[in-house]
Amino acid sequence: MKSLGILLSGRGSNFVAIADSIDAGRIPDARISVVISNKADVPGIATARARGLTALVIPSKGRPREEHDREVVGALKQHGVGLVCLAGYMRLLSPWFVQQFPHRILNIHPSLLPAFPGLEAQEQAFAYGVKVSGCTVHFVDEELDHGAIIVQKTVPVLNGDDEHTLSARILEQEHIAYTEAIKIVLAGRFEVVGRRLVAGQKAEVRMQE
Description:
Layout: E1 2-8, H1 13-23, E2 30-37, H2 43-50, E3 55-57, H3 65-78, E4 83-86, H4 95-100, E5 105-109, H5 121-128, E6 132-139, E7 149-156, H6 163-187, E8 190-193, E9 196-199, E10 204-206
């Protein structure tokens, strides 16, 4: 049984989608071992507890980044976590944190990276006038919204859209994409060559010369 750790800072809709996929057997042989938030009293923690999952609050406000990260990593390792999934976790991870889980931290971003990294990606895309947007699940590395891409889903921008309707349709695809990406990584049948992830290969990470 493969153990997942979820990090969130808010409602955690992608956490709920992951939990539902595990319960439905869409992510086989996996369980959520711990849900951690850096903020107290957020809906995601209440949802995790209502589902009978271990849920921890490790406050980050006013603390040095690496000190907080070390406490979070300690909790993840205490619960045997092998794959970390960020689900609306509104903090940048320190390089030290990333090094503790090489190619074992996933994030989802509501744009087709490398377009529109950072905050308010859907609003950026709408304001720019793109005709197609979407979402990206990627490995986390030391840079913002930068690691190798695992899964992308496209979403057309309709004439009647505003940033809210576009965001809602992207979110539907996020839930599908995250499940697909977790299955790829947990199966261990992928290869990373430079920035390219090739699924279906025996797990191997090769850096470009």
